[in-house]
Amino acid sequence: MAKRRESPSKRQLELRLSGQAFEIPPLWDVLLIGHQAPIGPEAAKRMAESLAPGQFELVRVQRAPVEALLVRKSLLKALAAEPLVELLLEELAPLLGEDQVVRAQVEIVLHTGRTIRLE
C-alpha cells in the first residue's frame, strides 16, 4: 500500500534571532563626537572614566563634522593614534552629522606566517 503524501503548507513563518554581548561601557572601541553633539568630548571622557577607568583616550581633531574621538587605549597599543584617527575620519566622518555621536567597532587582525626550511 502506497503512503499518502500530504501537501506542505504554503504558509511559513521565519524567525531570525541574533544576540550580542552587553558590554560595559557601551562605547565599543571608538566614539566619534560631532561638533554640535548633545554630549561634548569632555563629558564623554568623564562618562567613559566612570564606567571603565583608564580604558579610553580622548583625541581632539579639527575636521568637520567630528570634534573628537574617544578611543579604546588597547587599540592604540596596536596602531598609533594618527593613522587610526585618519582612517576613521576618512571612512566614517562623511557619513556623520555634526550633531551626532557614533560608536564604532574596530577589529585589528594580525596575520603572520613563517617558512621553515626542511633539510
UniProtKB/TrEMBL annotation:
This is Uncharacterized protein. It comes from Thermus thermamylovorans.
